[in-house]
Amino acid sequence: MGKSKNWRETLITAVVRTCGYSAVVFVLLIFFFLLREGVPALAEVKLGDLLSARWYPIESHFGILPLLTGSLIVTVGAMLIAIPFGIGTAVFLSEIAPRWMREILKPLVELLGGLPSVVLGFLGILVLSPFLRVFLNLPTGLTALAGALLLGGIAVPTTVSIAEDALDAVPQSYREGALALGATRWQTIWRVTLPAARSGVLTALMLGIGRTIGETMAVMMVTGNAPVLAIKLTSIFSPVRTMTATIAAEMGEVANGSTHYHVLFLIGLVLFLISLAVNIAASSVVFKSRKRAERVLS
Amino acid sequence: MVNLALAWAERYQAEHPEVSLSVTGGGSGTGIAALVNGTVDIANASRAMKTEEVQQAVANGINPVEFTVARDAIAVVVNPENPVRKLTLQQISDIYSGKINNWSQVGGDDRPIVRLSRETNSGTHVYFLETVLRLGDKTNPTLFSTDTLLLPSSEGIISEVELNPNAIGYDGLGYIPPDLMGSVIAVARDASGPFVTPSIASVNDGSYPVARDLYMYTAGEPTGAIKDYINWILSAEAQTIVADLGFVPIK
User: Do the chains contact at B160 and A140, CB–CB below 8 Å?
Assistant: First the structure.
């Protein structure tokens, strides 16, 4: 009896461990593939050219700065929308809405998250961009702003779902303690509940950022894909070209092994590294705050 | 060319059910790259293969053979509300390279110009760069202005031109829908020359300056089913399909 139990235990432990390690292995394999295909670009194109401001690959202008700034401005814009709306909705659902409303609204928000991004892109071309052109008196509505609005809308359901779960997991005793000390409802939410749920909320935001920076189809349809250097504040009202849209639009036409091919993989590598950096930053904050909480409890 | 290739494939398969044809889009660059990589039998291209591409193909053991299967006019089109209907090649070149930024500089209203173009993988894009922006001069270094919107499909361009009064776009004549045919620009080689609108007649007699050949490339001299298909495409029946879709037949 003991022996068969042991055998089953070992087997299950091995299977679970393999699954866990395989996640790391796959990520490492992808990273090495990107390195192998992207690093030759650093040898084939001078660094000065790579950091120039003109992206026109069919005539060997490989300046990736416009693409980098394009992705960044759209992501920052999207997060400026997703953070208040996402956290606000999560707080509303978990702290303020009555139970019956929460039961209806939460599935609806998750349904919104299931919308394919290409459908939103389509709505963006036909509805959002003419509206922005008329409303803000811009030359064209196909701008970084249209992209940021759509991406904010895409990131919100993800953020709400996870942040709301995190807020819900905060023990009721924290809220009761705060209210007993005379805090108002807002003070309780802002000073007690949200900080207690910090790790979950940060995870929600990181997932939102990850989704935003990797979004391809919707941005390809509404940002205009113009490789403009988007560094001024007003650049949000001009067309931009994101890294993801560049890879999607151009990967089909490159000959295997050409310089253009390597540069596109370099861009993919840059995207990968940015996501990695965002995740590492988030984990370090999460783990730091957990350690402090453990100290307080002991 | 994808519409044309699809129409041909459909008709040919209806008449020859034993042959199976599959057509995918993606631009001339994609098709030529696929031929160079050996993954397709025929590449449709709205531009000629570049020397480097031919060299790459030969290095892969593939000898590309070129067939001219139709001709096409590139129509420059503006929003129906825009009063401008005539432009010279130089003016179009200056608009697209960023030298002219306001419609009032070419006789229109005081509006900013929004330039629309196909993506860089499109043969139409490359042809427009060489023939219009660079006026046929291979040494001319003019490039598209960086704020030119590069839209991934013809539908994107048509949609934006229909909705945005500031827009100017270009595409093959076959892709211009009936509601934009009234706002196609008449182009002249220079300020003194006649302003010609694109049509089958003006392409065939050479008066429309922005016309080009459409090609099919095969890997080596075609044999068997591929040869029969290409011969059929050069026949009168397939060329009527060319005219129906708004392109120019080769005869």
Answer: yes
Q: Which residues pair with B66 in a beta bridge?
A: B217
A252 neighbourhood in chain B, CB within 8 Å: 26-27, 29-30, 33, 121
Cα separations in angstroms, A145 against A61, A124, A215, A238, A257: 27, 11, 15, 8, 36
**Residue A92 CB-half CA count within 13 A:** 11
ipTM: 0.77
Q: State which H helix or E strand residue B216 sits in.
A: strand B211-219
Spell out the residues 6+ positions from residue A257 whose beta carbon is closer than 8 angstroms to its own.
none
This prediction has a pTM of 0.82
Residues 19-58 of A with CB under 8 A from B: 53-54, 56-58
The pLDDT tens digits for A253-276 are: 787 788 899 999 999 999 999 988
pLDDT digits (tens, 9 = 90+) for B19-73: 999 999 888 888 898 999 889 999 999 888 888 889 989 998 999 999 999 988 8
- Distance, CA of B57 to chain centre: 23
Helix (H) or strand (E) run with residue B243 in it: helix B236-244
Q: Which residues pair with B67 in a beta bridge?
A: B216
Interface contact A221-B152, CB threshold 8 A: yes
- Which candidate from B33, B121, B149 shows the least CB-CB separation from A140? B149
Mean model confidence pLDDT for chain B:
90
